[in-house]
Structure formats: C-alpha cells, structure tokens
Amino acid sequence: xIYRTPFPRDVFAELDRLQRxxxxxxxxxxxxxxxxxxxxxxxxxxGTPRSVEIYAFAPGVDPxxxxxxxxxxxLTIAGERKVEQPAQDxxxxxxxxxxxxxxxxxxxxxxxxxDANAVEARYRDGVLxxxxxxxxxxxxxxxSIQ
Amino acid sequence: MxxxxxxxxxxxxxxxxxxxxxxxxxxxxxxxxxxxxxVPKDRLNxxxxxxxxxxxxxxxxxxxxxxxxxxxxxxxxxxxxxxxLSKELDADKVAAEFAHGVLKxxxxxxxxxxxxxxxxxxx
Lengths: 146, 123
Known about the structure:
The structure holds two protein chains of two kinds. By secondary structure, chain A is mainly beta. Chain A contains one helix and eight strands. Chain B has a domain of 74 residues: Immunoglobulin-like, CATH 2.60.40. In chain B, 0% of the residues lie in helices and 45% in strands. In chain B, a hairpin with a 2-residue loop joins strand 7 and strand 8. Classes of the chains: A mainly beta, B mainly beta.
C-alpha cells in the first residue's frame, strides 16, 4: 500500500521553516535570563563603536524613584510605578485596565568592553535613556603604517 | 472607523503599536489614561471626529549617530489607538494632559458629540 499524504507538501516542514524565518526576522536570541519581552519597562538596546545605548520605556514613573545599577557587567533597572485611580464613587466602573502597576525590575547583560564609570542616564517623555561609554582601549583605532 | 476619521496626518495603513490604556467611568464622565513613552508633546495627535476618538503619537528618541539596534521591544516609531465614543459623551469638552509619556483624557458626559481637535495642556 502506498501512503499518500493528504497535503500537497509537507506541512510540518513548512511550519518549521516559517517559525525559523520568523525568529530570524525578529532577531530573538534566547538569553539565559529568559525571554523578557513583554515586561515592564519595555526596552530597546543599541550600540555604536563608542557606546552602548539602553532605552527603558517607563512612562509616568517618578525619575528619582528609578534605581539604575551596574554590577559585574549587569545593568539593573528597578522601581515602582503607581498608577493613578480616580476617586471611587458608587457609579464608578473600570472598563479597561491594561497599564502596568506595581514594582518592576529588569536586567540586561552588558558587553565586556563597557566603562561602568562613564554612564549617563536621562529621563525624557517617559523614556529612561542610559548611555554607557565603551573603554578607550576597546574602541576601534586606525593604525598608521610607517 | 468612519471615513472622516481617516483624514489624519498619518496615513492609516502605516503600522503602529497599540498603547496600553486604562479607562474609568464615573457619574460625570470617562477618564482615559494611555502610555505613550517616547512621544514628545508636539508629536501627539488627538482627534475627536463624530463618535471616533483617535490617539496617535510618534516616538522620538535621541539616538547617537550610527547606532545599530540589537534588541527592540518598541519596534515601530508610532502608536495609534482608536475608540468609539458613545452618544452621551461631550466631545466638545474633552480635556487632555500629557506628561512623562502618559496621556490623561477626561471626557465629560453630555448630549451631543461634534468634530473637534483636542488641545493639549502642557504640565
């Protein structure tokens, strides 16, 4: 008896390929600290030859209450977000409740070449921007030929 | 969405992030909070047309020259969210405050809803 697949092509192989392509397209590299995607604050990380740039999207958080720490090459951003609630009365109702409230902590592993003493953090429009310089020795240098 | 709601500055087809919101209702009206981190005040666009409320904002970050992103959770430079208002809300009296990336809208209850651009109050 000849087995004939009911599908014109191997669907499972197709699904596998699709999943792999999705992963590549979104560049999700699994980290030992877990897939933190979806946590608060949302984070974007980027870099230049001179610095590492971290953006933490933490709207409505008192900047003085955010704790930023670098220890052993790991950056930690922690704090608490208090979400305002309007005065409760008999007719009050909550229709949508999606915004994050409560304590948060997020951790990012930093590259080896950063200078933990040259860090700048700014809070603007609800975004905490942390800029960390790379060590001088690690920066690309042009070598002149004699 | 009605056709009138499409006449906004940003074309509808552009992909946008859906900002998280909280919506509370009390006897006098509705209060809406939306998280729009990274949007400066001048890039926030609020519109009430007929019974449609549109919240739009463009993300602007200070990025050093030549920066390459290695991980992005806010992967689009835009937020957009559209709500349908019910008839008893007074779109003429919408009050908006925007600070630290959080938008607060207060929509009182009334009889009619008319097209109107919402002014943003800076804190």
